Protein 1
Amino acid sequence: MHKHGFTLVEEREIKELSSRARLWRHDATGAALLSMSNDDENKVFGVSFRTPPHDSTGVAHILEHSVLCGSEKYPVKEPFVELLKGSLQTFLNAFTYPDKTCYPVASTNLADFYNLVDVYLDAAFFPRITPEIFQQEGWHYETAQDGTLTYKGVVFNEMKGVYSSPESILAERSQQALFPDITYGLDSGGNPEHIPDLTYEAFKAFHETYYHPANARFYFWGDDPEDRRLAVLSQLLDRFGPLDVQSEVPLQQTFDTPKRLEVPYAAGADSDRRGMMTVNWLLPETSDAETNFALQMLDHILVGLPASPLRKALIESGLGEDLAGGGLENELRQLYFSTGLKGIDPADEEQISSLIFSVLRGLAEDGVPAASIEAAMNTVEFDLRENNTGRFPVGLAVMTRALTTWLYDGDPFSQLAFEKPVNAIRARVAVGEPVFENLIRRWLLDNTHRATVVLVPAENSDKARAEREKSRLAAVRASLDEQGLEAVRANAEKLRRMQEEPDTPEALSTIPRLGLHDLAAVNTPIPAQESPLDGMRLITHDIDAKGILYVDAGFSLNRIPAGLVPLVPLLGRAMVEMGTSRYDFVEMGMRIACKTGGIDADSVVLTRVDDRTPDARLFVQGKATQANAAALFELMRDVLLDAQLDQKERFRSILLEEKARMEHRLVPAGHMVVMSRLRSHFGKSGWLGEQMDGLAALEYLRELVRRVDEDWNGVLADLTAVRQALVGRAGAVLNMTGSGSTLAAAMPHASSFAASLPEGQDVPPAWFADIRPVHEALCVPSQVNYVGKAADLYSLGYRYHGSANVIFKHLRMAWLWDKVRVQGGAYGAFCAFDRASGVLAQVSYRDPNLEATLDVYDRSAEYLRSLSLTKDELVTSVVGAIGELDAHMLPHDRGMASLARTLTGDTEERRQQMRDEILSTTPEDFVRFADVLAEAARTGTVCVLGGAGVEEAAERNGWAVKSIM
Ligand SMILES: [Zn+2]
């Protein structure tokens, strides 16, 4: 078949994805197109290039940023940002992998979708990558007041943030150690020490070499007509001819003997147990589907569950605090497996290593337990069928999976059509073939291509790195005469002017946009039905979910005394992961994995919209196929009523793991830490969130580690008391999501589940909140900062109006983006306004600045006051705000979102009023809002987290200093 200059290469029905898949080749250029047609309204497009870098200057990553900074048809500074401001996109981003660069977009609105496709195609193939763009996104010199030079640039700073996270360093080094001879041995993101080696010429040449249709893989997914896909692409491809692009990723030569690598990294003062290590094995190519799926199952067998033998042995050894390594990595041409421990004494390396090998040897010799195999096969298959991609569009996850083979000219369907290979594995297991034991022997025990990577805390490594940067800059500075220095100054000034120069209205008008008439005037409600069930509130959502039932049982925290609130999330995990009176935690974990898609606990704090009081709950959540609904409820009941809390060692393992996770999150997710801290100053909901998930929670856990040793009986009494206060029908909700028939079939089981719970007592909250706003500086070892400021707008007299959504959308994408990211050099900044509590928090991340960023927040009011918004700009922000309101959600997320609305009194009437107000926002609303922001600036509370300069800034401003690592 020939169409629009394309020839059909292959056509397949992929029943696992309810899709018809067609693989096309463009005759003139050789471009490949994978076109998936199905009934998913969340349409996805992506263009991906094979971009193996030859050094660690971050050229691929800098290019990924730069092509989104203006193109031939769209000559504005940042078309990408224009789309973020005013589109109904459900996904818009770009990714740099070790060997490819992907540009995906998604939308549920057809017109919007093709607007996004058009802008992205023009960006990728015809970008205006000028030397100035390269300097802005990559790196350039700036001069400080005293005449010294510094480096600046968006990617430079982003990667400094990445290199501040020990976990990222470990992951990066683990991969590199296995692939010393090929592109995977480099850092495609860019090592801050190498980024300044990159020249504009090399950067430009990289685009010319790799961003050609002959080296591209195009992808479409969803319910749009295929003919339009081909027509749109053929228009673009007509401008190109064939090209011979050398971008193959070679295979890594096999090691004859294992390797070992020691890496010093910056750690805080308390660094006696802050080492980390992984053992890494090179596995076969991704292209062999059956081996690939079998290795995914083996990954689950070894480390997938708390009860998995390798994970369990490592955690229980007491040699470390939490598992390290990402397990099976399957996004590159060759698979690899990485596992180890965090929070170790590096002197224990040998011991950890031999522990890992003795567990593997045991499994190979004694056999993997049948329950373990069954659990792994069920879990891998459930995940493939459910395809729960969270906020990621399903079609995008499918693209990513297809690329794991397609990128290397393999079969794009080999990871999509999973039934045949998975059934083949099941059949081999059924006839007694030692499938997994053989894999362990061949690829782990007998595999000499492995590398051990140890991260050793070194107090001075950060300083040494900073010294190297300083002396490099000093050498450059010394080579400059007065004239040269002036040139650097002038260049930086020119960049600044370019960044500050607004786009002309003519340029902006090239960006294709939706109008108000394209937006739905009425909210689409989520189906919900409420009825009492044995004293519980039962809420059901009739939503088609591929035969899967989702159950969320939520128990109110009202009866928990304030001092025990931080224990709730830990109790949740303990209930799921400590076994019951009939089954120990290993057996219980296997039963859950065999019968369900998983059971988890999650603490959720909501705020009621009418009186700003919290609705705080511990949810136990599970999912299973309709056929296993009875088993799911039975397991959830066992978890809630029969968990054996009295196992000290098991509890200590969970506790240490939880503490380590929080500590490792501090830097990469510093903005979340700051946000939680700020919100805790303004009301009980924020306070509760901080107690369970913020820095306060971490402090509690650290203290609890000590208490477990000194006063285990006291801890156990607390756990038991919290469980008793939580688990009861009174005040609890049972939320179920699934198709009508799935729900009907589950009802009798839900009913006996409810009946089995104790009655409980519905009481007003027992806890109090000690709320005192305080300006804080939180000190951690880090090369970058997270800068936040917050205020409670309602207490400043503001009353909610839907125009706030539009104004904040505009502030975030216009003001904060320009000032904090583009000009300030931070990786990002956002303002989050919580409509229920009235708290506005402005937070930056991976930010080189402190006071300068706070100053930007404080000048928001001034900016709004002087803003003369054009009609187009206003419509853009309205479209963007509606896009956020109508965010696409997968079935379970819809069920949970609807429940949250019910629990907080966020009625359809209220939500429709909000929509009406958004749609009718005027420029005057923007100006009026300036007064509220001015008050927020004057009275707001500051919280910053970071390393460089934080203490000095605290001294200057009188902020309280807290050292947290
Ligand atoms: Zn980036």
Protein 2
Amino acid sequence: MRLLLFVLIVLFAYLFLRKLLKDYQSGRKTQETDPRHMVRCAYCGVFLPEGEALTEDRNNFCCREHRELAKRDKN
Ligand SMILES: [Zn+2]
């Protein structure tokens, strides 16, 4: 009977730790893709939410025009 109790405690501890780990991982994931994270337009320098930015060659742009202008300036 004591063994059964021990097994149950270990099982609960395992499930609890697994839940903690899962919460930690999902929390970190949402932080990485946080739409409120601000990035800077590589052309005009304005800050905008990462979710609204256009990304090309690891540069962020506030609009399609600036993406095209930056590309033209480079060439
Ligand atoms: Zn811009």
